[in-house]
Specification:
Blueprint lengths: L1 H20 L20 H10 L5 E9 L4 E4 L2 E4 L5 H11 L4 E2 L6 H9 L12 E19 L5 E20 L4 E25 L2 E12 L2 H20 L2 H5 L1 H5 L17 H12 L1
Parallel strand pairs: 1-4, 1-5
Antiparallel strand pairs: 2-3, 5-6, 6-7, 7-8
Helix pairs in contact: 2-5, 3-5
């Protein structure tokens, strides 16, 4: 048995050496197709767009990862949370039907043109509203685990959970007054299950394991949270959104839409809408 195992190991080593030594490129594996990112909350953003409540000019400031959590693994060091939340939100403004969206995410091209003297700052469109915030919660919760083995044979199960939370603020750019706020949280779920067999053949232990699992994608969940957060920011200022989009909300599993205690009866968005009606 030991001789057979050694022979197999040597054959694998020779084969891998031949692949490494060849001068030909290794054929690349074709994976799943490229596609647009979609979440169940895209329908909610479409509902917001249908209501045309985002009059004026909109921008996105900083939406920072303030969790302070860093991942360490064999691939290197990195953040658990995407650093591109602000860019996600800017895309959502366009998708939600903002009348005008100005790019405040990276002012360097515009400032460079001003510095070169080929553009004047008075040409820039000023914003009426902007969104800022932070992802400030990432807690890892105790999960569940179980394993049963009889004579070296048995199943096992492992569950992981974490909580992600964020705060978003909608600001009137003319006065810097914060006119709407929301805080959103979501549990991220993952599970692993397996089945193992261990047997002695003579003095040699042979083990066979089958494992599988499901893991909710963290960054895609963050996009969903931002989409729902944008809806809530607007619903605080435009209560008709709650009525018009209630069926869409009802189709989103686990979401219960309730009026926010932070809603403003003297809505700045409503004022902007009224001014547009008056002007027209």
């Amino acid at each position: 048995m030991k001789k057979n195992i050694l022979t197999a190991f040597l054959l694998l080593s020779v084969a891998s050496g031949c692949v490494a030594a060849t001068s030909k490129n290794v054929e690349l594996t074709q994976g799943p197709p490229v596609q647009s990112i979609r979440t169940p909350y895209d329908n909610l953003i479409s509902c917001v767009a249908d209501q045309a409540v985002m009059d004026g000019t909109w921008a996105v400031g900083q939406i920072l990862d303030q969790t302070g959590k860093t991942s360490l693994d064999n691939d290197g060091t990195g953040k658990y949370i995407s650093q591109g939340a602000g860019d996600m939100m800017q895309t959502m403004l366009v998708q939600a039907g903002a009348e005008h969206t100005v790019n405040r995410r990276d002012p360097r091209p515009s400032l460079m043109e001003v510095k070169w003297g080929i553009r004047k700052t008075k040409q820039f469109k000023t914003s009426d509203f902007y969104i800022t915030g932070s992802i400030n919660t990432l807690d890892f919760l105790p999960g569940a685990a179980g394993e049963l083995s009889v004579a070296g044979i048995g199943p096992r199960y492992l569950q992981h959970r974490s909580v992600v939370g964020l705060d978003l603020h909608l600001t009137d750019a003319a006065t810097t007054e914060v006119i709407s706020v929301v805080n959103i949280s979501k549990q991220i779920f993952a599970e692993e299950a397996g089945f193992g067999i261990g047997r002695f053949f003579g003095s040699t232990l042979v083990e066979f394991n089958i494992d599988g699992g499901n893991r909710e994608p963290l960054q895609l969940s963050l996009r969903s949270m931002l989409q729902f957060g944008l809806y809530k920011l607007l619903a605080n200022e435009s209560p008709q959104l709650i009525e018009e989009c209630k069926n869409t909300i009802a189709n989103l599993e686990g979401v219960e839409d309730t009026p926010s205690p932070y809603s403003n009866e003297n809505s700045a968005l409503q004022k902007a809408d009224d001014e547009n009606i008056t002007d027209s």
